[in-house]
Backbone:
């Protein structure tokens, strides 16, 4: 069984996940890890699929259902590995009046200070007139949280963070 | 002393209730020594509960005194027949478990608790605990009632993380 990464994108409507996963299940596929989000009103999902056939046979299976649901389907053969989660030690929250460049500036500074992003979610809230950008990230601080704080302080001094609030908090994972 | 086998989910025994300890004897103290050795043999566990090794009595060990970033704590604690008598506040925090390898998730716990327990000699103890130590005690005590942190997961997305300080 090979692992594939299946991506589906299209107009959101109820029942997509049930329909797609039923099709895969009935064809003998197995699912791994997945993430689904509604982005700008679009349905999006990234799904690890274990399938006994080829990329072509997976497409033959999924394309008719995707067409019926009005979704674009994309699949890649991947090296799939389960049971290899990394534990994040830092959570970064960013928000501010929306403008271009927030993500590039903040993640650029954090990456240079040793931050490895493991999870990122962002939304645009507020109103048409006053959009607000909100992003949360979790990751590993390979050079320590102090290095991240210093990088963000430098960004603030340069004025590159004007109007953007950034908060860095340690994540202490309890193992018990 | 010996390292005991840790039960991992979906072992049905993890869902079992544990009964109160009645005899504070050498057998209890010998088991506690094994339980502690088992905790220390794992990957950085700050606590362990007796049912995690298939011993269904109300015994937990918690020690958050060795954290890289120090937190308020009462040192190394062996808690027999523990009972939480008061809860205050709540916080979301990340938890994992020796019995649930390769997964961590967010769980809501009380921020402050008042705890009554007995030591292995049968002496009654009382504690006011907060933060990480209170979280560890609640996590371990859940095992005594057949609960895992998986039973208390909250969504990763859009969680409310209370800031410790307001600037």
Residues:
């Amino acid at each position: 069984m090979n692992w594939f990464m299946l991506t589906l994108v299209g107009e959101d409507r109820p029942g997509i996940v049930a329909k797609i996963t039923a099709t895969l299940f009935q064809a003998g596929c197995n699912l791994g890890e997945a993430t689904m989000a509604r982005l700008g009103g679009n349905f999006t999902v990234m799904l690890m699929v274990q399938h006994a056939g080829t990329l072509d046979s997976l497409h033959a299976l999924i394309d008719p259902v995707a067409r019926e649901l009005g979704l674009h389907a994309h699949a890649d053969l991947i090296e799939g590995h389960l049971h290899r989660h990394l534990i994040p030690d830092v959570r970064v929250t960013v928000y501010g009046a929306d403008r271009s460049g927030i993500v590039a500036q903040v993640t650029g500074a954090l990456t240079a200070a040793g931050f490895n992003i493991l999870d990122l979610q962002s939304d645009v809230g507020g109103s048409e007139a006053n959009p607000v950008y909100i992003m949360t990230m979790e990751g590993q601080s390979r050079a320590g949280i102090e290095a991240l704080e210093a990088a963000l302080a430098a960004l603030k001094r340069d004025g590159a963070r004007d109007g953007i609030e950034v908060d860095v908090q340690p994540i202490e994972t309890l193992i018990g | 002393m010996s390292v005991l086998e840790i039960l991992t989910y979906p072992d049905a025994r993890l869902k079992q209730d544990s009964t109160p300890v009645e005899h504070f004897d050498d057998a209890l103290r010998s088991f506690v020594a094994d339980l502690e050795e088992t905790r220390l043999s794992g990957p950085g566990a700050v606590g362990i509960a007796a049912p995690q090794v298939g011993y269904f009595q109300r015994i937990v060990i918690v020690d958050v005194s060795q954290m890289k970033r120090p937190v308020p704590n009462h040192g190394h604690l062996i808690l027999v027949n523990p009972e939480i008598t008061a809860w205050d506040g709540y916080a979301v925090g990340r938890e994992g478990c020796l019995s649930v390898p390769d997964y961590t998730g967010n769980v809501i716990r009380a921020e402050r608790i008042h705890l009554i327990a007995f030591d292995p000699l049968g002496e009654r103890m009382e504690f006011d605990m907060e933060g990480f130590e209170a979280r560890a005690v609640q996590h371990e005590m859940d095992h005594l009632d057949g609960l895992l942190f998986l039973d208390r997961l909250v969504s990763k997305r859009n969680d409310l993380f209370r800031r410790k300080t307001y600037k």
Q: What stands out?
A: Chain B has one domain: 12-154. Residues 12-154 of chain B form a domain with the Peptide Deformylase fold (CATH 3.90.45.10). The beta strands of chain B are 47-49, 59-62, 77-97, 100-118, 124-130, 153-154. Chain B has a mean pLDDT of 93.
